[in-house]
Amino acid sequence: MDDRSSGANAVQMKMPSTTTRPARPAIRRPATKPRGDQETDKGGRQGPLKPLEKLGAVSVPQPKTNVHTITIVGQIEGHMVLPSQNKTTKYEHILPQLVAIEESKEIEGLLVILNTVGGDVEAGLAIAEMVAGLTKPSVSLILGGGHSIGVPIAVSTDYSFIAPTATMTIHPIRLTGLLIGVPQTYEYLDKMQDRVIKFVVKQSKIREERFRELMFNTGGLARDIGTVLVGKDAVSEGLINAVGGIGEALARLHGLIKAWKMETGRPSGAKVSADPGQPDLPAVPAFQSPTGGWQQ
To answer: N or C: which end of the chain has fewer CB within 10 A?
Structure first.
């Protein structure tokens, strides 16, 4: 019995050694370089494929400049969120940029590029009034189109350009949604229309009578009331200062900045002259925007 028990014990003692496997050592994989679309540098900038996907360029140049550029494209979005398929410019994204431009010590000028079909009148007016109230030089450039409420934004800068093939559509204000057919509704529309006209006339060289004539023209558009101005026509009417492109716009803006720097004793809140060729420019009071807002 003793021999059998000792043999059984020996078998039992050997079983763990035959079934237990030794732990494998951890395998350290070599560090792999991330893909190009996941690469970031020390500054947190993305790799070469991200700009290619988003902007259609291999790399986006980031030159050091004293000019800030704001683009007004698509439809200007106001208090109502537009459908996702619409190309929009949100006014709540533009207004903080304008505040930062006014407060920044590095930014000395603003370039506004427009290619917009218009949109919410209150939102467009808010942008136009803030641009007009800047104490730093500003230049606007219309590429493609600056229609509807894009007109006040285009003329709100110190100097404005329009591309030779770009257009501007001038038409009356429209209302969307519920419309009550009472005389007060039409009086309200007339008051809003006057505010649009006064703003544009104040900021440009067009006469009020002529602007009203263009706005209420019945022979310029097939299915609407208004007028379309192409390139030099907007200049001849006095809405835009000159025909030109990005080169002319930047040259004019840098000239305004140079004149702005050369000014001495300029009171707070004043705007610079639109003529950069004169070194001793008198201070021009800042434009006081009309009170209230527009609705569409």
So the answer is: N
Tell me what the mean pLDDT of segment 282-291 comes to.
35
Instruction: Tell me the CATH number at 192.
Output: 3.90.226.10
End-to-end C-alpha distance for the chain, whole angstroms: 106
What span, in angstroms and rounded, lies between the C-alpha atoms of 86 and 82?
7
What does pTM read for this prediction?
0.69
In tens, the pLDDT along 119-133 reads: 888 888 889 999 999
> Which domain covers residue 146, as residue numbers?
65-285
- The runs of H, that is alpha helices, within the chain are 2-19, 49-55, 91-103, 121-132, 150-155, 183-203, 208-215, 232-236, 246-262
Asked if residue 290 is part of any domain, the answer here is no
Please report whether residue 49 resides in a domain: no
85 CB-near residues (< 8 Å, 6+ apart): none
Catalytic residues: 148, 171
Query: Residue 31: inside a domain, yes or no?
Result: no
Q: What kind and span of H or E run contains 170?
A: strand 167-170
Domain count, the chain: 1
